[in-house]
Design brief:
Layout (H helix, E strand, L loop, with lengths): L3 E5 L14 E5 L5 H8 L12 H8 L6 H4 E6 L2 E11 L4 E9 L9 H14 L5 E5 L4 H9 L3 E4 L4 H12 L3 E6 L4 E6 L7 E6 L5 H9 L3 E7 L4 H9 L6 E3 L2 H5 L5 E4 L6 H10 L3 E4 L7 H14 L3 E3 L7 H11 L6 E9 L6 H5 L6 H4 L7 H11 L3 E8 L4 H6 L7 E7 L4 E7 L6 E8 L2 E5 L12 E5 L11 E3 L6 H4 L7 H13 L10 H19 L5 E2 L6 H7 L4 E2 L8 E2 L12 H13 L1
Parallel strand pairs: 5-6, 7-8, 10-11, 10-13, 11-12, 13-14, 14-15, 16-19, 25-26
Antiparallel strand pairs: 1-6, 1-7, 2-3, 3-4, 4-5, 8-9, 16-20, 17-18, 17-24, 18-19, 20-21, 21-22, 22-23
Helix pairs in contact: 10-11, 12-15, 15-19
Length: about 600
């Protein structure tokens, strides 16, 4: 877990109190000082059995350090009892307060404030823009002394604000200013007991349990309302969670009138857009499950509602936050992969066993009438999110209808393939479907400096939770070797019990952080959501037109939106206002009514 980070800015008042009698400061002089430094730092900064080599690794090997100028000791009656380094990094003109420690038998006397004052005076005089330090929550005395000295918490890694809320609670500090890593102001944060929670309503009591779980686990969110047409779900939810303070609704309009900040949409995948629009018009922020829309008309209306209301819309494509693709995005954004050139994603899910329950054994259920291309964002979404690039062209391929889909009662090809061209010319291959014989979730991306790839499920190496990096330090060297890459971050330990490999936690966490004002929150906005979905929609059009490439419209442009404003083309037969096309390119397969009756009987027995 990343350490806490804090900044001190020139002009902040400095404690100029004189040292108590018997104490003085000195600088590092020679090798003889190393042993005293090691003894002082045996309080958590270095191991208890460390030798003087620890000094070399922590100080001498540190960037920009000058031992005689930057390394200080606090002495008592001529004996070193405290130490710190005050280092200026001239390229950025940033100061660093480093390796701060006091010998165990001198702790608790308020001596750290004198060391802090000396470091701040030195680095301020050197013209630094700010001073930074890193530390851990468990070093409570040190953290409190830094806050007292005017150091400010930094929002720079996952879950930092929540961790600082807890720290302030421990110290009884009501509030403090927090800053971003670039030293710009974030906001005043408050101790946990004074922090206002984001109030959530969940629409859809089955899949919606993942959002409810977050609200019951994390201190920054609160479940206040649930809406579902099936009242039996209410008892399931009450059995699973403490529902004190939660109101249950069957009527969506009554639900929307509840006093809450945001709505999580976990209803049918073909109905998300209309309900998202209604929620935003009612002044609620929206977290929408997969998929964002089912027609171009809905896409235009969804975008324009977001733009007109100013409400936050986030798309809950959780596969972007599985361990491997999540780390791929970070490495690419850090420059480790170089320029983005190619990516592949797979979401192959044999759904035969669960299909009767998921489709309600209904011939007209959206799952039974969707095309093979409809559910594309689990495979394509992470690639779009990693690259940050807009898809501009697509060609689609559809696998032929088979006996597995016939047994399921699903009127489409078992899986589909898209070949997508991005705005920079890079290519994506997306393979996905609900009717393959075996499962596969897998991703790989290529850049000018190498490749990143998740483990294959059949390799029994952890699948999408394991990432292999084969990267070159410089483009063209081709000297890298594949090796496992650490995918842990500041939220990993808190997400292990959540669904979909922990990724459900990340979706909610980032949405909550964005609503709390954190610009670092990694949400998928409405434009990116459509970048993930539209390639599938237009790939099916490609198949219907004989495999010709299709341009993917840029719906950020009003002129482009106007071309599609009235397009209701989809495969959903339940809405007579839509222009309904077959869910399978060669015409809807004939599935006898007995198939659905047998499925219903089997599911009831189960």
């Amino acid at each position: 877990m990343a350490q806490l980070k804090m900044y001190w800015f020139p002009g902040t008042p400095i404690d100029d109190a004189p040292l108590p009698a018997g104490y003085a400061f000195s600088n590092y002089q020679s090798e003889a000082d190393k042993a005293a430094w090691v003894e002082i730092c045996k309080n958590g900064l270095i191991a208890d059995d460390a030798d003087t080599a620890a000094f070399d690794s922590a100080i001498i090997e540190h960037d920009d350090v000058d031992l005689q100028r930057d390394v200080f000791f606090l002495d008592y009656q001529g004996e070193h009892i405290g130490t710190f380094a005050a280092i200026l990094h001239p390229a950025e003109q940033i100061g660093e307060f480093h390796m701060v420690a006091i010998r165990t038998d001198f702790r608790g006397r308020g001596l750290s404030r004198y060391m802090t004052a000396v470091a701040c005076r030195k680095l301020e005089a050197a013209g630094c823009r700010y001073i930074y330090l890193t530390t851990d929550e468990w070093r409570k005395g040190a953290v409190k002394s830094y806050l007292t000295a005017g150091f400010l918490p930094v929002e720079y890694d996952l879950n930092m604000e929540n961790r600082w809320n807890a720290v302030l609670e421990d110290y009884g500090i009501d509030s403090v200013q927090m800053v971003y890593e670039d030293a710009t102001p974030y906001k005043v944060i408050r101790r946990k007991g004074l922090t206002r929670k984001i109030r959530f309503g969940v629409f859809g009591g089955a899949r919606g349990k993942t959002f409810m779980q977050y609200c019951k686990t994390f201190d920054d969110a609160e479940l206040v309302a649930v809406c579902d047409k099936n009242e039996a779900r209410f008892d399931e939810i009450r059995a699973a969670f403490d529902c004190s303070g939660v109101t249950f609704y069957k009527d969506f309009d009554a639900f929307l009138a509840h006093d809450m900040d945001a709505v999580c949409l976990a209803n049918f995948a073909n109905e998300h857009a209309p309900y998202a629009i209604r929620a935003m018009l009612a002044g609620k922020h929206v977290l929408s499950e997969v998929l964002p829309v089912q027609t171009m008309k809905e896409a235009v209306e969804l975008i324009e509602t977001v733009e007109e209301t100013g409400m936050t819309y986030a798309y809950a494509e959780n596969y972007c936050f599985m361990a491997a693709p999540k780390a791929m995005r970070s490495l690419y954004r850090e420059g480790a992969l170089g320029s983005f050139e190619y990516g592949e994603g797979e979401y192959m899910h044999n759904c035969e066993n669960g299909w009767p329950g998921w489709s309600c054994c209904d011939p007209l259920h959206w799952r039974n009438t969707m095309s093979a291309f409809y559910y594309c964002t689990h495979s394509l979404g992470p690639l779009v999110h990693i690259s940050g690039l807009r898809p501009v062209k697509v060609v689609g391929f559809e696998a032929p209808f088979n006996t597995r889909m016939a047994r399921m009662g699903a009127k489409a090809g078992p899986f589909a393939l898209e070949i997508v061209t991005l705005e920079n010319g890079a290519i994506l291959k997306s393979l996905h479907g609900v009717g393959p014989s075996k499962d596969s979730v897998w991703y790989t991306v290529y850049g000018s400096k190498g490749r990143l790839e998740s483990a294959r499920e059949d390799a029994l190496a952890g699948g999408v939770n394991t990432l292999y990096a084969n990267l070159d330090a410089q483009e063209g060297s081709n000297e890298g070797k594949a090796a496992p890459e650490d995918t842990a971050d500041g939220l990993t330990a808190f997400s292990e019990s959540a669904g979909h490999g922990g990724s459900d936690t990340y979706v909610m966490f980032h949405f909550v952080q964005r609503l709390r004002g954190n610009r670092n929150a990694e949400i998928i906005d409405v434009y990116e959501a459509l970048n993930m979905f539209l390639p599938g929609m237009f790939a099916y059009q490609s198949v219907l037109d004989g495999g010709v490439p299709k341009e993917i419209p840029d719906l950020r442009s009003k002129e482009e939106r106007d071309k599609w404003r009235d397009d209701t083309t989809c495969t959903d037969p339940k809405n007579p206002e839509n222009h309904v096309i077959p869910s399978y390119s060669k015409g809807n397969p004939e599935i006898p009514p007995e198939t659905y009756e047998k499925l219903r009987q089997r599911w009831n027995q189960k």
